[in-house]
Design brief:
mainly alpha, PE domain-containing protein, elongated
Length: 111
C-alpha cells in the first residue's frame, strides 16, 4: 500500500494532487476495465430458440432472455459510471495542472 503524501491528522488545510497519478489511474481503468465491460456487452450468448418448443422450455427461454436484457442494462450502467469516473479523473488532473500553471504565471494549457 502506498503511504499518503501528507499525514491526514497533520494536514490542516493542506492538499496535494499529482495529476500524473490521476491520469495513470484513468488510463488503467480505460484499458482494463472499460474494454472488458465493452467486450462483455457484445459477447453475451443469445439462447433464444435453443430450448425447443415445449411450454416449460419456452418459459425458460423467456426468463433467460429477460435476464440477458437486464444484464445488458446493468453492464451499460456500470460502463457509463466507469466512463464518468475516467472523465472526472482526467478533468481533475487537468484542472490541477492549469491551476499550477496559473500559479507559476504560465499560460493555461490549451486543447
Amino acid at each position: 500500500m502506498n503511504e499518503p503524501l501528507i499525514d491526514p491528522a497533520a494536514a490542516g488545510e493542506k492538499m496535494m494532487c499529482r495529476p500524473e497519478v490521476l491520469l495513470d489511474v484513468a488510463a488503467t481503468l480505460e484499458e482494463d476495465l472499460e474494454s472488458r465491460l465493452e467486450a462483455a456487452r457484445y459477447n453475451m450468448p443469445d439462447l433464444w430458440g435453443a430450448p425447443g418448443s415445449w411450454d416449460i422450455a419456452q418459459e425458460y427461454a423467456h426468463t433467460v432472455s429477460r435476464a440477458r436484457l437486464a444484464t445488458e442494462d446493468s453492464l451499460e450502467f456500470v460502463l457509463a459510471q466507469v466512463q464518468r469516473v475516467i472523465a472526472d479523473l482526467r478533468g481533475t488532473a487537468n484542472a490541477v495542472r492549469d491551476a499550477d500553471q496559473r500559479a507559476a504565471g504560465a499560460a493555461p494549457r490549451t486543447g
